[in-house]
Design brief:
97 residues; mainly alpha; elongated
Length: 97
Amino acid sequence: MYPTIDSRQDTRTEHRHAQSTEQETIANEQRAGQLANAIYSEVYGHLDDKRHLATTAAEIRDWLEAGEVADDCTVRSLAAEWRQRDLDDPDCAGRPY
């Protein structure tokens, strides 16, 4: 049995929606990565440690993607939140600022 015209249309619509969703996800990940790097620079800009940059920027990106921050925040306010988060987290004790 062949699919009807309506079912083919539905399939194309679903495919376009899936592509759109995937593109939005990629764009959101890129924005989160850029924002994470900006926050890192604000908090740790004085450091010259590529390994620290890579691991900490990834942590910041994960924090942003988890949705734990408000949409209307600035880099400066997010950096302050990140610093406070580190101060409150015993696993992060001793991080250089």
